[in-house]
Specification:
By secondary structure, the chain is of the alpha/beta class. The protein is about 50% helix and about 15% strand. The chain contains 19 helices and twelve strands. The structure holds one RNA strand.
RNA sequence: GCCCCCAUCGUCUAGCGGUCUAGGACACGGCCCUCUCAAGGCCGGGACACGGGUUCGAGUCCCGUUGGGGGCACCA
């Protein structure tokens, strides 16, 4: 029988990068072992649950390609199960009711007063003495189970064999093991992985989202998507934050990660999440992306800025920019010359390439030759550039740049023949005329 | 305060006692390519926190110090 693992988020907020990694490692572990990946929603905090959060989690996981085999199972649907076990533990004498003047009556578990040991999948042999720890609340005064209670019941009932979770749970584990013992159950194997840190070296925090935003650090999956990161880049990058297949291998598909993943290769050192390498990796995946898919992915960015576009033109624009962008949201700015009806001329560019050093003369010659071209294609355009270049006894750059400035307004664009091709003869000539008047 | 975790280039990491004058990637600098910007190629600077052990031999094992992080809820 295969192993069973779970990802068990609480629907209290957005799916962030740390959760993605937890989900990913559990997913990889399940797939590597040909086991089952369960999605369980830990919605036992009535006050903090948020309606939209669930959708964000579900959509985010699917966008990342982390598909689950069972679930989502909601703990709020299983309250009768928890109360049955609560009664059982109470009857066994291991739990007692405690009154709190403010909060009300809660069922409390007498933890083992001893040192609890377990073999951690990441840290190896581990132990912690909980004899001085406070007892564990199982049932809150609103009659909902606590995390530590519901988690143990569910992991057992769902036959979860391996639990990979963050180091923040390290203190819970011995108490949970104590609960397993009281119920006469075999605990699953636990593995605790180090937290993901922000650039300041602190745990990623919802409270610092504004700050992260300022430095271009996407911590929410939805934000990653909006900024134009590809899921394969996010997943690949996040996988490497705390795990390595060994050796020099870094760029991996999900399938390759599944093949290579073992929990004992999860590191013990907290990793900082800096955006540089993610950006680079996203560029890699953008360049790898088949053009048809890339067109569909980028269409919203362009059309929300410039309105509906013919697919051929869209495709050509994307083709031209594919190796130049690191994020899809860079596209509108880079393709402005192609899609905006009106361009603005950059004063510095005009001064350098048009006003000075006979740029106008060159541009005039180009205009004359281009207007007489029968076929406005790459070969024809290049022959024009060459002729003008030779006539003026200069370098190609001194011909291409004035032309580039004239038709795009600036000094940066795809290769000049591509730039002209996407604009078409009419626009090119009109813009040259406009530039000649500057 | 108490408990716990962690410690290799700026960052992500490889390294599981000798093959380490410590490898790769990102970032950075230089060069090449070149009509601009990218992409790509080549080269370069850059790390085993510190102190004790153990051992013939330590980045690798043990202890301590320092530093960083996490946890101490009727949150998960």
């Amino acid at each position: 029988m295969g192993i069973r693992v779970r990802f068990a988020p609480s629907p209290t907020g957005d799916l962030h990068i740390g959760s993605v990694r937890t989900a990913l490692y559990n997913f990889l572990h399940a797939r590597h072992e040909k086991g089952t990946f369960v999605l369980r929603i830990e919605d036992t905090d009535q006050k903090r649950n948020k309606e939209e959060a669930l959708k964000g989690i579900v959509d985010g996981l699917q966008w990342c390609g982390l598909h689950w085999d069972e679930g989502p199972i909601f703990q709020s649907d299983r309250l009768d199960v928890y109360s049955r076990y609560a009664k059982k533990i109470e009857e066994s004498g291991r739990a007692y009711w405690r009154d709190d003047p403010g909060k009300g009556r809660a069922l409390v578990f007498r933890i083992d007063r001893e040192k609890i040991a377990w073999d951690d999948l990441v840290h190896g042999p581990s132990a912690r003495d909980i004899s001085l720890d406070p007892d564990l609340v199982l049932v809150k005064s609103d009659s909902f189970p606590t995390y530590n209670f519901a988690c143990v019941i569910d992991d057992h009932e769902m036959n979860i064999s391996h639990v990979l979770r963050g180091d923040e749970h390290l203190a819970n584990t011995p108490k949970q093991i104590s609960l397993y013992r009281a119920l006469g159950w075999e605990p699953p194997r636990f593995g605790h992985m180090p937290l993901i840190m922000d650039p300041d070296g602190e745990k990623l925090s919802k409270r610092k989202i504004e700050k992260y935003h300022g430095i271009g650090l996407p911590v929410i999956v939805e934000e990653c998507r909006a900024l134009g990161y590809l899921p394969e880049a996010i997943v690949n990058f996040v996988a490497l934050l705390g795990w390595s297949p060994g050796g020099d291998l870094e760029l991996m598909t999900l399938d390759e990660m599944i093949e290579k993943f073992t929990a004992d290769r999860i590191g013990t050192t907290p990793a900082r999440f800096l955006v540089d390498k993610l950006l680079w990796m996203n560029g890699i995946y953008i360049r790898k992306c088949p053009i048809d898919r890339l067109v569909e992915l980028t269409r919203p960015y362009i059309e929300s800025t410039y309105g509906p576009q013919p697919v051929e033109k869209l495709r050509e624009a994307v083709r031209q920019q594919q190796e130049r962008i690191k994020r899809l949201d860079e596209l509108p700015a880079l393709t402005k010359f192609a899609f905006a009806p009106k361009i603005e001329y950059d004063a510095k560019a005009v001064a350098k390439w048009l006003t000075a050093d006979g740029g106008r003369a060159i541009l005039g010659d180009l205009r004359a030759e281009l207007s007489e071209l029968r076929a406005f294609d790459k070969a024809a355009v290049e022959s024009v550039l060459t002729r003008v270049m030779e006539k003026h006894k200069t370098k190609l750059g001194n011909v291409a740049q004035p032309l580039r400035v004239a038709v795009t307004g600036g000094t940066v664009s795809p290769p000049i023949h591509d730039t002209l091709a996407i604009l078409g003869r009419e626009t090119v000539l009109a813009r040259i005329d406009e530039a000649l008047k500057l």
